[in-house]
C-alpha cells in the first residue's frame, strides 16, 4: 500500500524525450522537402523523387506520433528511413558525389533515438553496409567511384563523430540516472517519515483520497483509526528522547506487521498514527485494532538495557459517502479524545 505511483512513473519514463524525436521528424521532413525541390530544379528527378518520398515518410511519422503518441514506431520510421536515404546517397553519389557527406548525421540521431548500446549496434551495421557499398567493385554494384583516400577518411571521421556522440550520449544517460535517483530520494523525503519509514501525513491523505474514490465507486466500507500513544511525554522524560524515538520505530513495525497488505498505517504527527482500512467496516476495524492492542499488553520495548511498556488509545470512524476526509478524521479524533478521557489504553467507539 505504501508505494508511490510517481516513483514508478519515473522508472518507466524513457531517457529519450518524445517531443525531441517529434522535432527531429519535422526538421527531417522540411530539409528533405527543400533538398527535393533543389534537386528538381537541377533536373535530378530521381533524387528529387527519393527525397520527396523521404519527406513524405517523415510526415507520416509525425502524423503517427500526433495520433497514437507512439514514439517506438516513429523512432523506427525516422531512423531506418534515414539509413535508407543515406545508402541511396552513398550508392548514387547525390549531387556532385557529395552524397556520402550526409552520413555524419546518422551517429547522433541513432544514439539519441536508440540509446547507447542499441544505437552503437545500429551504427555498426550502418557503417558496415556503407563500407560494403563504397568498397564493392563497381562491376558488382554500379556506384560512383570514390577516391580511396576519400572513402577511408570518410569512415575514420564517421567513427570519430560516432565516438564523440557515444561519449555525449553516455554522459547524458548517466546524468538522467542521477537526476532520477535524486528525484526518488526527494520524493521519499516528501512522502515518507524519515524516522519510522511509514507514510507521512501527505502520503496518508493521498492514499485516503484514492480509497475514498474507490469506496464511492464500489460502495464497500472504508474505515480510519487515529492512534495516539499514551503518556508518551513520560517515556521521553523517563528514558530520554532517543528511547522515545526507538519506541516510535518499534510501534511502527508492530503496526505494519499487524495489518493486511491493502491497509496502511501512516505517521500522522508526533506520537500519532493513522490507520486506513479499505473494504472494512468500523466494527471490523475495531476487531483488528483490538488485536493489536492486545499484542501490546504484554509487549516490552527493549532500549539500551531498559524495558519500556507503552499503550495507546484509538478512535475509529467509518467514512460515509457524504462525509469529507477532514470530517472523518475529526470524528475519529473525537473518539480518540473519548478513549483518552475514559482512562486511555482503549479503542472507541466500542463494538
Ligand atoms: N522522542 C520523540 N518524541 C516525540 C516525537 N514527536 C513528538 N514527541 C513527543 O510526544 C509527546 C507528546 O506529549 P503529549 O501531547 O503531552 O501527550 P502524551 O504525553 O502522550 O499524553 P496523552 O496523549 O494525553 O496520553 C511530547 O513530549 C513530544 O515531545 C518524536 O518524533 N520523538
Automatic annotation (TrEMBL):
Keyword Membrane: yes
Protein name per its UniProtKB record: diguanylate cyclase
Domain GGDEF: 220-351
InterPro entries to which the protein is assigned, alphabetical: Diguanylate_Cyclase, GGDEF_dom, MASE6, Nucleotide_cyclase, Rev_trsase/Diguanyl_cyclase
CDD domains noted in UniProt: GGDEF
Top-rank lineage group of the source organism: Bacteria
Keywords attached to this entry: Membrane, Transmembrane, Transmembrane helix
Amino acid at each position: 500500500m505504501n508505494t508511490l505511483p510517481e516513483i514508478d512513473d519515473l522508472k518507466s519514463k524513457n531517457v529519450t524525450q518524445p517531443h525531441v524525436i517529434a522535432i527531429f521528424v519535422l526538421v527531417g521532413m522540411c530539409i528533405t522537402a527543400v533538398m527535393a525541390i533543389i534537386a528538381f530544379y537541377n533536373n535530378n528527378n530521381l533524387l528529387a523523387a527519393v527525397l520527396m518520398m523521404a519527406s513524405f515518410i517523415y510526415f507520416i511519422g509525425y502524423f503517427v506520433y500526433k495520433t497514437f503518441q507512439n514514439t517506438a514506431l516513429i523512432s523506427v520510421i525516422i531512423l531506418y528511413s534515414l539509413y535508407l536515404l543515406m545508402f541511396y546517397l552513398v550508392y548514387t553519389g547525390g549531387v556532385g558525389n557529395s552524397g556520402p557527406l550526409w552520413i555524419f548525421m546518422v551517429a547522433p540521431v541513432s544514439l539519441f533515438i536508440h540509446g547507447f548500446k542499441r544505437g552503437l549496434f545500429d551504427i555498426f551495421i550502418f557503417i558496415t553496409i556503407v563500407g560494403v557499398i563504397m568498397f564493392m567493385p563497381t562491376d558488382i554494384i554500379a556506384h560512383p567511384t570514390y577516391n580511396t583516400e576519400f572513402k577511408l577518411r570518410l569512415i575514420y571521421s564517421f567513427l570519430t563523430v560516432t565516438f564523440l556522440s557515444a561519449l555525449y550520449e553516455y554522459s547524458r544517460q548517466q546524468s538522467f540516472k542521477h537526476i532520477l535517483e535524486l528525484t526518488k530520494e526527494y520524493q521519499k523525503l516528501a512522502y515518507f517519515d524519515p524516522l519510522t519509514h511509514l507514510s507521512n501525513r501527505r502520503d496518508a491523505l493521498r492514499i485516503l483520497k484514492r480509497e475514498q474514490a474507490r469506496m464511492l465507486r464500489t460502495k464497500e466500507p472504508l474505515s480510519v483509526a487515529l492512534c495516539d500513544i499514551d503518556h508518551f511525554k513520560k517515556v521521553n522524560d523517563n528514558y530520554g528522547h532517543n528511547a522515545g524515538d526507538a519506541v516510535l520505530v518499534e510501534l511502527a513495525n508492530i503496526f505494519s506487521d499487524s495489518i493486511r497488505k491493502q491497509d496502511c498505517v501512516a505517521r500522522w504527527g508526533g506520537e500519532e498514527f493513522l490507520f486506513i482500512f479499505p473494504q472494512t467496516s468500523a466494527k471490523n476495524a475495531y476487531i483488528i485494532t483490538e488485536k493489536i492492542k492486545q499484542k501490546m499488553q504484554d509487549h516490552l520495548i527493549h532500549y539500551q538495557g531498559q524495558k519500556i511498556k507503552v499503550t495507546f488509545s484509538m478512535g475509529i470512524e467509518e467514512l460515509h459517502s457524504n462525509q469529507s476526509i477532514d470530517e472523518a478524521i475529526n470524528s475519529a479524533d473525537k473518539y480518540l479524545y473519548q478513549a483518552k478521557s475514559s482512562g486511555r489504553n482503549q479503542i472507541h467507539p466500542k463494538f
